[in-house]
Amino acid sequence: MQLQSYACGQWLTGRDRGVGMRDATSGEIVGHASSTGLEFAAMLSHARNVGGPALRELTFHERAALLKSLAKRLSELKEEFYSLSFRTGATRSDSAIDIANRCAFTPQELRRESYLAIAVCLAALFVIAGAIVWWIQMAQHASSFFSGGAAGLSSSPWSTNLGAALTFMSFGTVAALWGATRVVLSFRANRSLASQDPRS
To answer: Where are the domains of the chain?
Structure first.
């Protein structure tokens, strides 16, 4: 197998056989790769004058559609990627992080994970806001606390804010823990699926 490079809008092959890439376990040559004869200046010029302007003309949704098509195609070739990765000495579990986790997301999974990321970000903001209000409340009534009393605390408008701060902090903590748990469970599920392969 002679690897090619996609450059300047076409597939190009080096002028010589280049460097042999060997199987990590058997030593067998899997393929060759060479950059001899490739015009790197021409590649840079093509990217700046052709590829860049064409990409900038696309709308946000058109770019998303291209990425979606690419991800779909890569997912179809996933087993081939696993086979090649196995020849580098990696197990299926090792490869799953780079292959399955990058290619196999469905639109529903991407939408769900996006909502999860938003929830965790909001949780962090809630915790920060709650902590700020908490310390302001403590500063407002520090003298009462140090003297052993809480005179005026019940009638202070900051009492409501303190309650809100505790609520926000509790919600934020729960949401962050939920997000972390989802990540851990997702990782364990991927490893479990990968472990079913006899080569893992």
So the answer is: 1-57, 70-104, 107-195
